[in-house]
Specification:
By secondary structure, the chain is an alpha/beta fold. It is 46% helix and 15% strand.
Length: 387
Amino acid sequence: MKTISVLGSTGSIGTQTLDVVEAYPELFQAGALAANRRWEMLAEQARKFHPKAVAIGDETCYPQLKEALSGSGIEILAGESGVIELAQRQDQDIVLSALVGVAGLKPTVAALEAGKPIALANKETLVVGGELVTKLAKQKGLPLLPVDSEHSAIFQALQGRGLKAIKRIILTASGGPFRKVPAEKLSAMTAAEALQHPTWNMGAKITVDSSSLMNKGFEVLEAMHLFEVSLDQIDIWVHPQSIVHSMVEFLDGSVIAQMGPPDMRTPIQYALGYPECLTHSWQTLSVQHCRDLTFEEPRWNDFPCLSYAFEAGRQGGTMPCCLNAANEIAVAAFLEGKITFGDIPKILRQAMDNHTVTAASSLEILSETDAEVRRCSAAYVKQLMGV
């Protein structure tokens, strides 16, 4: 029986993780749950799964959550410190990190420091603090088990071969909802249109990132750290059917691809059950899934966010942190209708051009960089709005 802390339990990955927990009551139990603001759903999950503790990141939601769980006997924590405390609990066997954005970095680091294996669905943790996090995991002898379908695919393809056998990683991308939109019409695309992903059911922020290909750019940086490869060893192939989740080309020229229907519960199950291979199947791959598999080059010029990720990774240091902070501000503004889709790469470009790179040697430096870039990017949003 593995006891699991689910950080981000009310999001898309978190709710699907609880689907896996529910499907294997003899193997898994949800020992702790954390969310940012959705206290009603968190309370509902707590009543269903009976964890020992819950944490709500937004402290203003604490009174409502406390009242909702009155008499339950469940410990209730609040604020960033509460989420971090929950991540460090010694009565948990593994921490699934699925908080959205850079908010997942500190709790993930805290969990590693407490000796907890990580099932990692929060890609920003490695985008922003990749060197720190991977170094800490090695020092502690703890695994970083990838949950993203692409990185899970690579991880599975490497079983029995190892990192030194990699020649090239091919990350597949759906292309998002705007894959066929002409370049001259992209800038006018709305948030409602961006949220209509053709193959995956994800949260709003990740879905917008998919529409700009920023999500794939972040996955490039995540892969660089997880699998210890250079950016020159990573290719992107657009694969709109989302059946081939990624591929690894080995030094001997062979290529292994991992395939399956687009269902995140499969990589979640793989990470939680690892190294065991569990028998439950959420969806079965069929001939119909595989009848028309196609691949194409990304539209690099039309979706510049993807190139920005490679650029940030090559500069290293605090530049990926800068890119992520600017993107979080831009996506939030886009979802609120304050800027156009075409403004997103403008905000990223402005932030990167004005950022002075330093070594990403501590959480303090990363926090300072994040805060400063957010401030400058928010000011640029107002400029774009004409405020």
